[in-house]
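Sharing a chain and its predicted structure for anyone who wants a worked example. Both blocks are below, sequence first, tokens second.
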Amino acid sequence: MNRALRIQVCPWLLAVILLQPDPLLGETIPVRYPEGTTHGFLALRTLDGKLLASGDLTEVLHGNEVVSHLVFRFKDGSVDDDTTVFSQHRTFRLISDHHIQKGPSFPHPTNILIKAATGQVTVRYRDKDREKVETDHLDLPPDLANGILLNVLKNISPDTKETKVSYVGGAPKPRLVHLSITPVGEQTFSVAGARHKAILFRVKVEIGGIAGMIAHLIGKQPADTKVWVVHEGAPAFVRADEALYVGGPIWSIQMAAPEWGKAAHSGP
């Protein structure tokens, strides 16, 4: 049956189907733990532990808005740079998200800017060594989670069976999809010999409709993301295993521990 379906769907029709928007109804996430001024250090590794990139996460309050900047600098010179502005009055609301990926680690470098209020999505990408720009206007829902997924996860109760939010994905032609977030269970980890527990959340991309069926058949369904969040006292991100781009390998983002060299001990 699958083989017959592949034969009947010609390339241009497949492209049209995959780009058709589906009506999405997600849910805004109540703010249980407001974000404050933060600076965290991260490490990006392969699943077998090889270090790929160092990361910085900063959050700064500007009045009623939070500016979040997450950047990974790869050993091969690649960069994954995401700057997000959002509000957190009762619920999380995305204002803008600017995500840049470039360098050898990214087969298809992209530069995506989302302006939630206007629905404008601008994608800059390279095609046959030429830079191209695509601008679309989407009906963006209030539960859009681009750039704030970790903030959303920290505010979801582990007892919640499933949470759905919206997300803009795809380049060069962006489209709205759902993210289905479900708690998997509790897992134990250690820090400096002390044992702690974290809730594992699974994040699944739901394209929906005919487009979702076709994506599954041709192997274009994005891989699930796994995120571990501590809920002891105040919630905290611990780890995320995810593909940074569609079809890419699963890499692991984790909090980094300081390493002190000899130069650090030579001071006063």
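Comments welcome. DSSP finds five helices and 14 strands in the chain.
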